[in-house]
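Model: You mentioned two targets. I'll fold them one after the other.
Researcher: Yes, keep them separate.
Model: Target one:
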Amino acid sequence: MEFQLKRFHMAIEVTKIANIHYFEFTNQYHTFMDRHAFRELVYVDSGSITVESESYTGILKMNELIIHKTNEIHSLSCPTDDAPSVIIIGFECASEMLDSFSSQPTMLSQAQQKILTEIIKEGRSVFLPPYDVPNVKNMKKRKDYPFGADQMIKIKLEEFFIMLLRSKTVSQQLKNDKIANANMLEICTYIEKNYKGKINLNELCFLYNTNKTSLCYGFKAAFGETIIHYINRLRIKEAKKLLRASSLNITQIAAEVGFSSVYYFSRIFKSLENKSPTEYIKTIKSKLDSFE
């Protein structure tokens, strides 16, 4: 059999670049309403600006970012008492996932800020100055830019956007997650009292006023394992006690601890204990017999 090569899935792909600017604006500076056939990243490095667009109108503060959609009408203005520094990058990317950054500011982490700084540095090595003149229609490239620097801009932009989208997903999950750690302890207590019965995620969501995504994410974040794994651990722990101390057979024990079938019980038992229920009890009896 030949090796099977796999193609990369391009979740985010930046296909073209229009400009990479670092502006040190004066106070009261403003742009006219503009639109163009590419996206525009606007990041405030210091100070603050007012952004006006079809998706968002409001203040963009230091370390905050917004990404205007393709062909979206937009402008910016600076306050009367501040002279902000602003990064503006025009680029082409077809992914609609970036649209989610057009309607409200996003605060960047230090790691994200670092990548944005690296993009600016690569941009300086690829493009000729000036870097701070608005509305440059053709930002020219150097003839002798370092090997791969042009591609590095693309790679780093894609890395930056992937980081943004990942952090947005986690933040949204945490924001929507109505289950605090205290509630997680309540859920554990509920499971410990009811694990022998039929427990499902829909029931837990109803009881604790949440959704499956928030429930599962919050539980694993708090305890390091999934809810199903936690329930199965409790059931197998009780089953081991019954195997050692009762006269019930395996089918009866499976039902007693909450499993719907002896087959499923045996499979879970073996996955957690590395031996079947029968092998487990034989091992225990063998150990006990050796002490007699």
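Model: Target two:
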Amino acid sequence: MGKSKETGRTISQELFYVNGKPTVSQAFPLALQHVVAMIVGCVTPAIIVAGVAGLSPADSIILIQAALVMSALTTFLQLFPILKGAPVSIGSGLPVIMGISFAYVPTMQAIAEEHHVAAILGAQIIGGAVAVLVGVFIKQIRRFFPPLIAGTVVFAIGLSLYPTAINYMAGGVGSADYGSWQNWLVSIIVLIIVTALNHYGKGIWKLSSILIGIMIGYVVSLFFGMVDFSPIASASMFQLPRPLHFGLAFEPSSCVAIAVLFAISAIQAIGDFSATTTGGLDRMPTDEELNGGIVAYGISNIICAFFGGLPTATYSQNVGIVSSTKVVAKRVFAIAAGILLAAGLIPKFSSILTTIPYCVLGGATVSVFASIAMTGVKLITVSPMNYRNTTIVGLAIALGMGITQSNQALAAFPAWVTTILGKSPVVLATMIAIVLNLVLPKDMHLPEEEGSH
């Protein structure tokens, strides 16, 4: 194995240094592995929102294209910070991959159904500004989001996504064959493949479990005549993103709901940055890296909104790859971002993704949503499950899920109250959890616990 002239390290060792310079032949397969691990998760929120908003096939392709292009550009911004060394830099400089976040899907569904995509993008600009403020004042704000609260939020996100997955497994609400045995058969085949590969597969087979499940499910669905190829024929070979194609609308209740989620996601990003550095670099992130990463997260989402890119976030599955492989060379992640960018600039590729039947997506994503919920449970149980903490989690989830699942629970309130608190359980559960964490006494015990002292 050859050595780097600058450092004396072997080429293979270059993979394990942030500023290492591995050869393209070494870096490309590892970059492709990162793309494979996240690309389905990156485009699925766009597909879901497009379906709820009733977008045409052409507009759906544009939304997916924007998801890929903006994910690539925000990844580049995180890898190569701007104004590094300034009081507040833009970008973390850490080996992370950015993609469209599932955390916003329940709220985006509600907004798209009520106000269309423009209201999501307008609210995203406000949310991005909130994230920038969180990044600047991260030390002061962080105390409001201990693991117990962050875990409750993530748990609520996972639970709120289950109906979407089940409806997709059944074929998508409103479809002529909703609930048919063919839809359920295909979705269950996909789910079995994904689950089997996650538990028995190794290496690329495990990392690509969702992609492989979707590919096999796609082939099976072809035999049932479920695939419509017409969007591919009408899509062009190359197309730049279209600024303000969907417009911008600043609907107050939507802005509040999205802004709350951006504040939460900005705090959660600390966890992903910390997991990246501890797993790949054996250290905690510096204050500069955290501040720069979160500020870049906010600014990039403001820019994304103008180009139709839905809210992005750090991708935990890619953090997991870093922890397991210890590969941290930014060149690997830059190549991965380049692959995403190329895919986004080719509408033919984006159009292929729009032909995936809902039942295939449902079978693949239900396990992802389950994983999100259980990640929340893991975060929650970092804290002792005493009477106080179980009260916080239990009430937040009970009220968040219960009120939003009852369509008429807030019928007597103004429409803006319903949009903020009655459409997505995540916002309400978050607010309740934060308030209870602040007001309940820290030494609260069960009556039997007090009697035993």
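Researcher: Noted. Anything on target two?
Model: The first helix runs from residue 24 to 53.
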